[in-house]
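Notes from the 1:1 (GR / supervisor)

We went over the backlog. Supervisor wanted to see one worked example end to end before approving the batch request, so GR pasted a single chain during the call. The sequence is below; no edits were made to it. Supervisor asked that the structure be written out right there so they could see what the output format looks like.
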Amino acid sequence: MNARKWVKRLWITFACVLVLVVGVGAWIVVQNDFAVREVQVTIPGPKQPLKAVLALPTEGKGPRGLVVFAHGDGVADASGDEVYRPIWEAFARAGYASLSWNKPGVGGAPGNWLHQSMSDRSAEVDAALDWAKRQPEIDPNRLGVWGISQGGWVLPKVAGDRTDLRFMILVGAAVNWVRQGEYNLRAELQDQGAPAGKLDAELRRRAARLRLLEEGAAYDKYLASGLDNSPMSRDRWRFVLQNFRADVTDQLPKVRTPTLLMLGDHDRNVDVKETEATYRAGIPRGLLTVEKLRDSSHSAVKYELDNPDSVWGLITFVAAPRSIYVPGYLDSLTEFVKKHGR
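Structure output shown during the call:
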């Protein structure tokens, strides 16, 4: 084969690779283009300003309904590290805006979320709802809340204290801090295939840590105990110390808001059987809808993708972010809001 033909083949190969790269890039751009307009806002919070994002639908006119978000545990910015955007879009399809904020101390927000109690977090949601009712873009008569995991200790108090909410949506909601922690420990060790002896040792370690919490031990005493090879930070110990008695059971009978409880069948964090039973016993009759999500993790993400080491999960998150969630989850959000939020 002469040199000219080699050059021609190289150019054809280069062109094909270029087309493929451009095509993939365009696909990713389209998949990450959500039907919401994000506006940075600052909300006067109960202790410090809240650095927030108001995600408004791009279609339709007039004041919008609003869904206020409550994060789970851990560091979280307003977008939930970008996993909220498909959820914002689902609410936008129902004509609702979404409002979420950086946890205190995250992304330049003042404060420290590890210094908060669950009541502090409920007060933040109340402040956000009161602020939103004064905004011209928001219809004050169409308000709802969405929360995940630890948000299950935050939002029922809000719903029980207020009369202006149209709906509450909870995903993987926790009931009791102590029991949830033990359930999570057992589930994680089972997934790891840990021997029974390791489980027994970890349960003993957990019981000793709980005794320190119950006596209100200072951080230095916890540290000196040597219980944990990688001990909690001082702030984390403070956070657990002020929240480990959290239990939503007594709050549920006060709720007068239509509630959608969404539970994954592969939830390693929360005992969904306990959650369902507690909510059915506590929420007044006729107000509760329970939806069980098949092949779902704690956060309604597909179970096989919900792993920080999953390469395919990362690829899906980047190239098709709506597809990280189990089928039907986003549609259920839209339909529930349409039904109860008009």
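Supervisor's comment: Residues 1-12, 15-24 have pLDDT under 50 and may be disordered.
Batch request approved.
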